[in-house]
Amino acid sequence: YNSDLSCMMLDLDYFKEINDTFGHGFGDVVLRAFACRLTAIIRVTDFAFRFGGEEFIVLLPQTDIAGAKQIADKIRNANEAEAFISGDHRANVTVSIGLVSFQKHLPATSDDLIVMADKALYAAKEGGRNLVEIYQ
Asked: What's the confidence (pLDDT) of residue 1?
């Protein structure tokens, strides 16, 4: 459509501690519930994927970096506001998010897009977690 495409990489903060404290069964519940929250927030034209472990990628067609930031903030806030619950287990889990867009950051390949989003995610983690960072 000759318009921008943004990419969001998300990582559940301290997820290993969830598995270590409550077990992998509850960790799986958290992953599934987070995926449901994520797909409830993004638009029907967006694409969400589990990238590995506790990482997810969301592709946002026809979305510039400012629009991606708005969606990322909405995801982060919604996730922070509601605990994950299963049986006797309850945990609040925050999410860190890295953002990149084709028109702003000009990645040469789709792999570069992922690398840039990952670097932005790393900056969010280094900045204290539960943050949204745009690739610099």
From this structure: 75
